[in-house]
Amino acid sequence: MPEYRTYAGLDDRISKDGDVGFIGFNNRLRPDQLPAGMLADSQNMRTDRRGEAQVRKGIDLVSNPLSTGAAALVLPFTLVANDTSVTATQTGGAVVLTNVTATNFPSSGTVNVSGVSGLTPAVNGNRAYTKNSSTQITIADQTYSGTASGTATVKFGILNDNAVNAIYGSCAFSDPNASASQYVIFSSNIKGVAVNIATGVTTDIAYPTGVTVSDTTSMLQAFNKVFIFRDGETALEWNGSFSGTPAFTKVASGTYTQPVQISSTVTTADGKMTVTAGSAHNLSTGKEVIVEAKAGSNLIEGERYIVTVVNSTTFTIFVQHANESNTQNVIFQQQVSVGLGFSHMPAPPYAVYHQRRLVMPFKFSVTGTDSFTSRGILDEVIASDILDTDTYDQIYAQYRFNAGEADFNVGLHSFSEDTLMVFNRNSIHIISNTTSLQGASTKLLTNEVGCVSRQSIKQVGNQVIFLSDNGVYSTQFFDAYNLRGTDTPLSEPINSTIQRINKAHWDKSVAVYFDNRYYLAIPLDNSTKNNAIIIYNFLNKQWESIDQVADTDFHVSNLLVVGEGDARGVYAVNDIGGVQKLDERVDGVDRVVTQIGGQQNNINVSGSLTTRQYTFGSLERKNWKQFEMHIESGASTVSNFDISAETENPDFDLPLGTLSDFVGSTLEEAGDVSIRGRIGNRRGYGIQFTINNTTGRPKIRAIEADGSISFRSTNKAE
User: Are residues 684 and 575 in the same domain?
Assistant: First the structure.
């Protein structure tokens, strides 16, 4: 049966316009200017290689917030005697505690519970509660299962001087000796905390005695260590071991002692020389030594060797000399600084790993133990010695850019084997030939664009992507491996979104690259925190989605790629210590905790898309008759969504119903359906469709609009 009747001489022929797939969205151009396959808007959607636009997977909760709030004591403060004979029962996923002397309890707050067994997860510990009566309280901070047993003890009026009340930084950590050991490390006000992303178990990592953190930190794993950089204060380091009592220590500071001569006895066998010093040599593996006095050995004075440390008094080197045994009085010398001499780590705000070195801003001079003085220079960087995070040459390892100009360092990026990119606020530079710092050279890449957020800098293949004043830019290799910047922002197609970024707080933006996508968390509109994530799909070469959680309290302080196997993915952390894995739940539900001591929220993902404007490629006004959509349900969820249309000139909003209106119910799991509906002969220059998801994770495969060019009135259309 034909779709339409036979056309007569005076009939208007039916025209069709639509898309049989989608690759991304563009909100800079008018909807009627967009090419086939482009959406005018995409919220919480993914466009895969098959051209299907599907609601994203949900966010999964890995670890509850670590923070206990802004203060350990709130006045007025009531001390209540411990209750030691409390009965615990599990009802509807909550734990009810009875026989509690709750007369003086506030209506809600925190109590400490102990002695309860049989529940999953365990309820013991500090828990948020709500008061039912003078003898009963309920704990519903998460969903509990099982049958409670044991006699509970409830303690109210917790006064904890060691409470975590703020999170100031985070980083990914993996144990190099255990591939399945993957963590997120937090720096809080009073301690470090490691969260195992596979189990959610937390481990405290103590700070040195008397050390607290009160401002934003930067964290980095390098040299099998984790560093906490504190701008203007002594950095902290942890050796990465969980054995015993894990603890951070301060990096070395104070006056730097130049290397001393090492008087030693040497023995050579088959090219390997063992050097035994008369006292501690204070070397580390990878350091260079020079032959100062050969004595009776087969060495040549002036030769340089890289050492491997055996113990505090012994190291080995590889030589091309004849064998010898117990040759005494050979003197080695470490390389010494020229000019201003070596320095300990200069209290940087951050650092990057490059060529077996740490490179960092050189803002402070070390003036004493835990004492630093501002140099008044904001555009200079310095590099450590190879495999030595405590030694910095103040002449040959420092570089300054745009001296005397109104510019300052924002970030660094290790681009390739011998190239370091330096991002200033108003310019970008490169340091080449960094294998040997003395032979390195600097070059201005551009002074027309700079970087606004250090953590937005990410490398994707031969490109380096970052957030600038004008949007997301990229630099890439061109001819002869010449690094150049592009003249058009990568974010040009979504400029309307870029203009919504709160510029007062865009320095907090953070990014990662994973699964062929660039994720950039940004503060939209009036938000002071990152409340949205924009995603660029490198397979489609298009911006894919603006992701947001339907909870205004959800925000992102850092994005991390961590994990192994199925656990590997993008993790979002916030400044209260919560850890969430993105694109994880196939049911299309976001599981998040956004409040300290709050309950887990299960929120359906609010996916939506708006098509380009269909016009048949004509400026004539049309008579819109019907539409057709091809839809597939998610593999494990039923699906439903609202459908609406909008015509332009004349403008009209037209509700078209729900998916269930057309198929009789929600679309079953993995169901595939084609629906057709009437538009009602609405007239207009163009029409576009909007789909707002309400249930599941449907895939939109194709959309088509049918109509005729029939409205030929000379009257204006408004």
Answer: no
